[in-house]
From TrEMBL:
SUPFAM superfamilies: Metallo-hydrolase/oxidoreductase (SSF56281)
InterPro entries referenced in this protein's UniProt entry, alphabetically: Integrator_9su, Metallo-B-lactamas, RibonucZ/Hydroxyglut_hydro
Subcellular location per the Swiss-Prot or TrEMBL entry: Nucleus
GO cellular component, one term: integrator complex
The name this protein goes by in its record: Integrator complex subunit 9
UniProt entry keywords in alphabetical sequence: Nucleus
Gene3D superfamilies listed in its UniProt record: 3.40.50.10890, Ribonuclease Z/Hydroxyacylglutathione hydrolase-like
Length: 612
């Protein structure tokens, strides 16, 4: 059967801080998973300098162009960074879609909603946006903080240029160091169109008015057809995977997830066990070298203490190094954008400082720090989250503006998803019918005999999803079911019943609604099913004292198409028998009635339309 459902990967992302973005077409509705922003690309811009004259040679007019060219052509250094109001890199492929065609937006994490105001401020946008309560609140605070930070750049550089800024012109891009040029344009040069000016604080406020918040496992029905539920992914506070159930089959969207054996709010994989299709979108192990094996898989295989203990050791390491630095008279700066890690470190710092009898101030530098800390006091879920971080952070580029300072740099990477091996173990436990997997993982997969099939998707390529269920379920009231007069067609071994009602879709299920029987005395015709046995029909007509002859009708290619039974006595009539129907033609009502009785008497089934 041809698939009516498609899946398109708009972006594979770059880890925790730039999650993937996809579109799923299901039951005639278009679902967008996440609307992220690539924050790592901000490293191409220079921080706001302390004095205005420090930027003169980089933001000057054409007369300083030669000096700029000479400087940029050198090896990458702090002077190579762009001194201008930043622009922000979004998912370029999403910009190519008509926003009016999107029906639902599902947000999996706070990082997955940072570019949402770009969509919601579009006058053609009318989709429903769903996120967990925690994700919506944290995402709102992050967007407000981003808007406040951007205002500092705008106050320094002045109003934004109406046209493309100087640094976005091709002759300037060609002179930039390769590292910066690839961040701006992408390795293949196709990402240049994704840069946009940041939205305003008013855009953020208007955006949040369109976000519908849910609790874990809370059900919401869209248009009576799709049932949507979020379940904990274990990645961060409020981060979730999504289950979408339609009349035909169910889908599970698995974003970056982390197993936690010691907490109640870890990866809720059991909620995905009834899914027919799994859309796997955890790219955190894109550089993994492990392969799938066919070991016996149990929950103990997935839930163990190793990863959790490693994360705790990383936190201990950071705290230990920080304490040593403070004892030596130094200061500690920790640039972290993950709320779970921030809270864990604050708690550990307080304990370490108390044990060392050290009184050192701790500052959380953010325009929304007060609101963020207040929010964490009313949500205990953060204690149940594993801690993760994105892979591949370019520490050298991020620290480039501060190179003249004497500092010790320590880089620590936290988990941001499951390994390739664990993903396979998970699928073995879930046992879906079909799995969509990133193409980049194909080389790490050893073909195994499984009950489910695999499909592999590329970025910006539409993939058709095969139907996994041959039949569609239909809900019928028990009292109606008991009243149906079933008849079995012997050869097909099918039970058949006739009824009159309305087929509707409610709460993601097909339902048959039968109205009250209309009071009427009008006789209704019988509806008959079955195959006409020609020999039996001729014998029945003969018993009714009818004389008949038989003619075979063939098509132009010589194949049999119908049989004509010609009745000559007592009145003329023609009976045309085909595979699909039996047609009686005569000018005598009595003969027509007798022939009809003869045909009905040899059929397998007859149903009275006056019945249910």
């Amino acid at each position: 059967m041809d698939s009516l459902e498609t899946f398109t990967c708009l972006s594979e992302g770059k880890g925790f801080y730039f999650p993937p973005c996809h579109i799923l077409d299901i039951c005639g509705f278009r679902v967008l998973f996440d609307c992220p922003m690539d924050l790592s690309s901000l490293s191409v811009f220079s921080p706001v300098p302390m004095h205005a004259n420090e930027t003169a040679e980089y933001v000057g007019g054409p007369e300083s162009n030669e000096g700029k060219r000479s400087k940029i052509e050198k090896t990458l250094n702090a002077d190579s960074l762009i001194c201008a109001e930043p622009r922000y890199k979004t998912v370029k492929n999403l910009l190519l879609w008509d926003v009016s065609s999107i029906d639902i937006v599902l947000i999996s994490s706070p990082m997955g909603m940072l570019a949402l105001p770009y969509l919601t401020r579009n006058i053609d946008f009318s989709a429903k946006v769903y996120a967990t309560e925690a994700v919506a609140r944290i995402g709102q605070l992050m967007m407000e903080d981003l808007a406040n930070m951007h205002m500092e750049f705008r106050q320094f550089y002045g109003p934004a240029e109406s046209d493309a800024p100087q640094w976005m012109k091709w002759d300037e891009l060609e002179l930039m160091p390769l590292e910066l040029r690839q961040l701006i344009c992408g390795v293949d040069g196709t990402e240049f169109g994704g840069w946009m000016l940041l939205y305003s604080a008013a855009d953020v406020k208007a955006c949040m008015l369109k976000v519908h918040t849910l609790k874990f496992a809370e059900e919401v029905c869209y248009n009576g057809t799709l049932i949507v539920k979020p379940f904990s992914s274990g990645l961060e506070i409020g981060s979730c995977n999504w289950n979408i159930t339609g009349p035909k089959e169910s889908f599970a969207y698995v974003s970056s997830s982390v197993f936690s054996p010691t907490t109640a709010m870890g990866f809720d994989y059991k909620a995905l066990q009834t899914s027919d299709v799994i859309l796997y979108s955890d790219f955190s192990s894109r550089n993994a070298v492990d392969k799938f094996d066919d070991d016996n898989v149990t929950s103990a295989t997935l839930f163990n203490d190793d990863e959790y203990l490693e994360e705790m050791e990383k936190l201990d390491f950071i705290c230990s190094c920080s304490t040593d630095s403070i004892k030596a008279g130094g200061s500690v700066l920790i640039p972290i954008g993950r709320l779970g890690i921030i809270l864990q470190l604050l708690e550990r710092f307080a304990l370490d400082m108390a044990s060392e009898n050290m009184k050192v101030p701790i500052f959380v530098i953010s325009s929304v720090a007060e609101e963020l800390m207040a929010f964490t006091n009313i949500i205990p879920e953060w204690l149940c989250k594993q801690l993760q971080d994105r892979e591949g952070v370019d520490a050298s580029l991020a620290l480039l503006p501060f190179k003249p300072m004497a500092m010790k740099v320590l880089q620590c990477s936290f988990l941001s998803g499951m390994s390739v091996q664990k993903s396979h173990n998970l699928l073995q436990m879930l046992q879906p019918r079909h799995v969509l997997f990133p193409e980049i993982y194909r080389q790490h997969i050893t073909p195994l005999e499984t009950s489910f099939s695999f499909g592999y998707y590329h970025e910006n390529e539409m993939l058709h999803i095969p139907y996994t269920n041959e039949y569609t379920k239909l809900e019928i009231a028990i009292e109606l079911l008991c009243r149906l007069p079933y008849t079995t067609l012997q050869k097909q071994e099918i039970d058949v019943a006739r009824l009159k009602g309305e087929l509707v879709v409610e709460q993601g299920r097909y339902k048959l609604l039968v109205g009250n029987e209309r009071a009427t005395t009008q006789a209704k015709p019988l509806l008959h099913f079955g195959r006409v046995d020609l020999n039996v029909l001729l014998m029945t007509l003969q018993k009714m004292s009818m004389s008949t002859t038989v003619e075979e009708v063939k098509g132009t290619d010589g194949t049999h198409t119908a049989t004509l039974v010609l009745v000559t006595e007592p009145r003329k009539a023609v009976i045309e028998v085909t595979e699909a129907q039996t047609l009686i033609t005569t000018g005598d009502d009595n003969i027509a009635s007798l022939i009809s009785q003869a045909v009905c008497s040899i059929l397998d089934f007859a149903s009275d339309q006056n019945g249910p």
